[in-house]
Automatic annotation (TrEMBL):
This is Hexosyltransferase. Pfam families: Glyco_transf_8. It is a single-pass type II membrane protein. One of its GO terms (molecular function) is polygalacturonate 4-alpha-galacturonosyltransferase activity. It is found in: Golgi apparatus membrane. SUPFAM superfamilies: Nucleotide-diphospho-sugar transferases. Its EC number is 2.4.1.-. It comes from Lactuca sativa (Garden lettuce). The chain crosses the membrane at residues 24-46.
């Protein structure tokens, strides 16, 4: 037992003495590693090439000596730490001053005095370290620093830092605002560019929507045509009524291939007429839409005793290429590109291909189409009649042929806007400042028209314009030429225009008008119509017609 006890004590003493020895060895190892690391770092520092501060600061050191002092500062001279801090502070302010000077140059500010101040301030910081007094005593010596010199250097650095901060504080708000303004300008320019592109795309899309046949209109025409085919006995041609040629009645001419638009014109006129049984509507359409137009007015006869005549362009046999210049030009190889090939006219305006249709040129042949009538009122298919119009047949025309509302104001809508006055034929015959007028509502004295032989005049100018060089595309320019000095100006209340493109027309003006005109791309039967005006048109749509609801007109 005694042996066992002694062995146990000896084992315990060996374990307890080994722990201190291991701890001491570990400390010796760590110390050796730090010593090696220290000498390695010192070797790198003392063997490095001379270093320089940032190019922006302009404050250069003398390289090896300054690095040695910096490294030994903690051990040899505590003043070196103060010098390093002052050097860094000066360098930071040089960078800041140069940054504001760069902003000022970029923004092109009219502050040359401040720019010079910034440049001088940056140079003063740089020159401070190169002064002989400081350069030798502080930067080129390995001896302990002179505290008095260092204190003087520190004072000058702080003075210059204070001046720099004052100048920056005075100009900071101005520069920040200028930067914000510049950023806002850049943003505005970018947004304007996007807006311009969006407007162009929107205008093009609107034009496509306006000039294409909506599905609802196509549906209506097809259903009416189907009714005509399914029930031929119900829609037999009738003999012309004597009222169609009675000069004592009030006659209207409407040329269109749009069934529902024509029905609105007729309905609105009849509902607002004082004596509707004296009103006769002459509707002319193309061969494709004749059946649909006929079926509509057979299924829904005009109320209150008014008369409706439906015919086709082809029914007027005198309208052929030997008599009508436009038809002759359409058949000519030299002119076909003008009517069918080019999508834009000479002024880069997009051509409306509806102007190719003979329906639009019928307005120049009214005396021949209705030889027994004395007066006739021409209405476009995109108008709505709000008042009785019979006063126009009693109007004193003062010997004029055409009664229309003038559209000019200031320099706008003058003849110079529609005709090519660089052409000698136009320049010699017309006044570029003459006031233009509008189609849409026009009362024509057919007797005066015949006396003046204005259809021949129209033919003469249409022949001259075979190459399209006299006027822009459209029906108004040849109308302005044909009825030049032969148009009587009507009061504006007779005809208010712009409901198809101008949302700012006042309701007071609209309510006072006899006729409102949805000229423009936003026709009331399209999805792109302006909602604030659409109800003025839809209230005259015959909602009881089955096909209107079936074709989803969205009324």
């Amino acid at each position: 037992m005694a042996v066992v006890v002694r062995s146990g004590r000896g084992g315990g003493g060996s374990a307890s003495s080994s722990a201190p020895r291991n701890f001491v060895s570990y400390r010796i190892f760590v110390s050796a590693m730090f010593t090696l690391l220290f000498f390695a770092t010192a070797s790198v520092l003392f063997s490095s090439h001379p270093a320089h501060f940032s190019d922006n600061s302009g404050m250069q050191t003398t390289g090896r000596a300054y690095m040695q002092r910096t490294f030994l500062a903690l051990k040899s001279d505590p003043l070196k730490t103060r010098l390093d801090l002052m050097h860094k502070q000066a360098n930071d302010h040089i960078v800041l001053v140069n940054a504001y000077a760069a902003y000022a140059r970029k923004l092109k500010l009219e502050i040359s005095k401040q720019l010079k101040m910034f440049e001088d301030l940056a140079q003063n910081f740089s020159d401070l370290s190169t002064k002989p007094t400081y350069h030798t005593a502080l930067f080129e010596t390995n001896e302990p620093l002179d505290e008095e010199v260092l204190r003087q250097f520190e004072k000058e650095v702080k003075d210059k830092v204070k001046v720099a901060r004052l100048i920056i504080a005075d100009t900071k708000e101005s520069y920040d605002n200028q930067l914000k303004i510049q950023k806002l300008k850049d943003t505005i320019f970018a947004v304007q560019d996007l807006l311009t592109k969006a407007k162009k795309n929107g205008a093009f899309a609107s034009l496509i929507a306006a000039k294409s046949t909506p599905k609802s209109l196509h549906c209506l025409a097809m259903r009416l045509m189907g009714d005509r085919i399914a029930n031929p006995e119900k829609y037999r041609d009738e003999e012309p009524k004597p009222e169609f040629e009675d000069p004592l009645l009030y006659h209207y001419a409407i040329f269109s291939d749009n069934v529902i638009a024509v029905s609105v014109v007729v309905n609105s006129t009849v509902k607002n007429a004082e004596e509707p049984w004296k009103h006769v509507f002459h509707i002319v359409t193309d061969k494709m839409n004749l059946a649909a137009m006929t079926v509509w007015f057979k299924k829904k006869p005009v109320e209150r005793g008014a008369f409706v005549e439906v015919k086709t362009v082809e029914g007027y046999t005198f309208l052929n290429s030997s008599y009508v210049p436009v038809l002759r030009q359409m058949e000519s190889a030299n002119s076909q590109n003008l009517y069918f090939g080019a999508t834009r006219d000479a002024n880069n305006n997009i051509r409306n291909q509806k102007h190719v249709s003979m329906l639009n040129h019928l307005r120049f042949y009214l005396p021949e189409m209705y030889p027994k009538l004395h007066r006739i009122l021409l209405l476009d298919d995109d108008v709505v009649v709000q008042k009785d119009l019979t006063a126009l047949w009693k109007l004193d025309m003062d010997g004029k042929v055409n009664g229309a509302v003038e559209t000019c104001f200031g320099s706008f809508h003058r003849y110079a806007h529609y005709l090519n006055f660089s052409h000698p034929s136009i320049r010699e015959k017309f006044n570029p400042k003459a006031c233009a007028w509008a189609f849409g509502l026009n009362i024509f004295d057919l007797d005066a028209w015949r006396r003046e032989k204005l259809t021949d005049k129209y033919h003469y100018w249409q022949d001259l314009n075979e190459d399209g060089g006299l006027w822009n595309s459209g029906m108004l320019p040849p109308g302005l030429i044909t009825f030049y000095s032969r148009t009587k100006s009507l009061e504006k209340k007779w005809h208010v225009r712009g409901l198809g493109y101008n949302p700012s027309i006042s309701m007071d003006e609209i309510n006072a008008a006899a006729v409102i005109h949805f000229n423009g791309n936003m026709k009331p039967w399209l999805d792109i119509a302006m909602n604030q005006f659409k109800h003025l048109w839809t209230k005259y749509v015959d909602r009881e017609m089955d096909y209107v609801q079936l074709c989803n007109f969205g009324l």
